[in-house]
Amino acid sequence: MTQSLPGMDLLKDAVDCHAHVCPHINARTISVFEATRQAAAAGMKGLGLMDNFGNSAGFAALAMLELGDLGVDVFGGLILEPCAGGVSPYVVKIALDYGYHSGGTKTGARFISLPTHHTRNVASSEGRSPAYIEDCFHVPLTGEIQDETKEVLDLIAGRDVVLNTGFISAEEAVRLCQAAKGRGVERIIVPAVSYAEDLIGDIVATGAYAEFFFFGLTHATHTASVNIEAQINSPSAVSLAETAARIRAAGPEQTILSGDLGMAVLPPPVEGLREFLLTIRSAGFTDEEIRTMVVNNPTQLFKVGQKHASVMADISCI
Predict the structure, then answer these.
(1) Which residue among 111, 138, 292, 296 is buried most deeply as judged by most CB within 10 Å?
(2) What CATH number has the domain bearing residue 19?
(3) How far is Cα 180 from Cα 161, in angstroms, rounded to an integer?
(4) Residues of the domain holding 240
């Protein structure tokens, strides 16, 4: 990537907490290793790996073992899709201690995400069958949340890692953030690309960060792809005006910008993030505000650059 391209300065010390460069059932642009090298060349300091099919903390640990001297903090976590074990405290315990142990430190999961596709919210938008929708994850808007969800929240709180609320509805996200805070979860990120501005306000009022990513603005929303269950789907696009208004509803101090890139029809994560930040700048945001949203906030939320102590969970496995 040519260093003279416009917007390269916006990538200095940036953290992209949402990169899909792990193995996938759709074509990826680059590998985890190449994404790390490109991030380092751009002067970025953090790269978060997302994987709908498994615990990406293992890929992050491998990247740090091989390329840690490049200065990019590569981290991963677990999205609780059915193919990754579902909303299960057991698989969360494994994820929190998954990595290479060396010198008392390692790279376990730095985030735990509730499902991003196997939710009633997404399944309904995809026109799934009533039986399929009923089987998907949701957050009850009244009464108690599920016991398994409570246990997952308690594990997240106990290890002080990030809760990603996944692709639930905005109303569910508000309820989940409130429940999580009540159980001691301090670090929360909410994908809010399609949420109404008033509900975004309710979400950030809990102390959570609202996440806005480039994918929703791109032509990839017109490209059918397969995510889980062999279902072909095309997510809804959002406009720049809508995105800008939603960022302003959250406020830059409670917003995180990310790429959600890796799909073969899109540019690689670093180049895509450069394009996204320029696009956000064109909507009237200052360089200082952009730096807050792509450097300061994700660095703080994901503890980028900090040493992470090894604390083995109470679990027996081979």
Answers:
(1) 111
(2) 3.20.20.140
(3) 12
(4) 14-301
**CB-CB neighbours of 58 under 10 Å:** 20
**Residue 311 placed within a domain:** no
- Residue 106, pLDDT above cutoff 60: no
Residue-wise pLDDT for 164-208, tens only, equals 999 999 999 999 999 999 999 999 999 999 999 999 999 999 999
CA distance linking residue 36 with residue 73, whole number of Å: 9
pTM assigned to the model? 0.91
110 within a domain of the structure (yes/no):
yes
Q: What are phi and psi of 223, to 5 degrees?
A: -110, 120
Is residue 275 situated within a structural domain? yes
The owner of tokens 């890929």 is 59
Q: How many CA atoms lie within 13 A of 310 on its CB side?
A: 11
Q: Which of 47, 49, 61 has the alpha carbon at shortest distance from 23?
A: 49
Domains in the chain, number:
1
Cβ count within 10 A of residue 186: 14
CA angle 291, 188, 138 (to 5 degrees): 135
Yes or no: say if 301 and 66 are a contact pair by the CB < 8 Å rule: no
- Give the pLDDT band (50/70/90) at residue 313: very low
| Residues in CB range of 314: below 8 A, 6 or more apart | 93
Pick the closest to residue 166 from 141, 195, 144 (CA basis). Answer: 195
What amino acid occupies position 250?
A
Assigned domain for 315 exists: no
The tokens of 49 are what? 């790996």
